[in-house]
Amino acid sequence: MNQSLVSFKGNKDGIYIYVKEGSFQKIKEQLDSTLKKAGSFFKGAKVISIKGKKLSVDEKEELKGIIINKYGLNVDDITDVIDEEVDYYDSTQSQFFEGIEDGYTKFIRTTIRSGQTVESDGNLVIIGDINPGGIVVAKGNIVILGALRGIAHAGCDGNRGAVVAAFLLQPTQLRIADIIARKPDEEIETSRWPEIARIEEDAVLIETYLPKNK
User: Fold this and answer.
1) Exposed end of the chain (fewer CB within 10 Å): N or C?
2) Per residue in 45-65, is it b (16+ CB within 10 Å) or e — as a string?
3) CA-CA distances (angstroms) from residue 101 to 3, 192, 194, 210?
4) pLDDT at 148
5) DSSP letter (8 states) at residue 4
6) pLDDT value for 76
7) Angle subtended at Cα 14 by Cα 159 and Cα 115, rounded to the nearest 5 degrees
8) Residue 168 forms beta bridges with which residues?
9) What does DSSP assign to residue 39?
10) What is d(CA 103, CA 98) in angstroms, rounded to the nearest whole number?
11) CB 173: neighbour CB atoms within 10 A?
């Protein structure tokens, strides 16, 4: 498996792009590939900074050219690219929330409206809908007893074993750990059953949840 040299982390202010030490050509290729796979999920997003690997002025401009010119992302200040050493999470190490099977869970009983953000250091259960513009972020699983039409980021500190489940999955953006779900090219029929999103082979897989007969 190829080493991941580029990862994305976001909060309510925007997106941070983290770059590891490695071949700059591979960094460019991975950045381009990730943004391409993300499709419209990053549309209108704001890149706050690029952190990690020491980059030359020319290298910074090349990356910003991909971000701005090719994919139309916003960068507030063209000089707002910060070089600093960053501690990256490693999905092979136990540095993330491990209670996805049996751990701390936060329950929220309300609809998350546009502009609202709910975060949890463990699992997160929303009894209500996530409207477009609403954001839910958790280090563990996210379970929505309603419709997900906003943004959800499970396993936000790196646990790829986390899942996102909802009665209706129609997110504007869905992430698990460092993997962003790719929006289908074609229109898909709305499922009549709850759905679960999980990571399989470095991609987010969404499947219908059907109770097993005993």
Assistant:
1) C
2) bebbbbbbbebeeebeebbbe
3) 28, 26, 19, 19
4) 95
5) P
6) 56
7) 95
8) 147
9) G
10) 8
11) 19
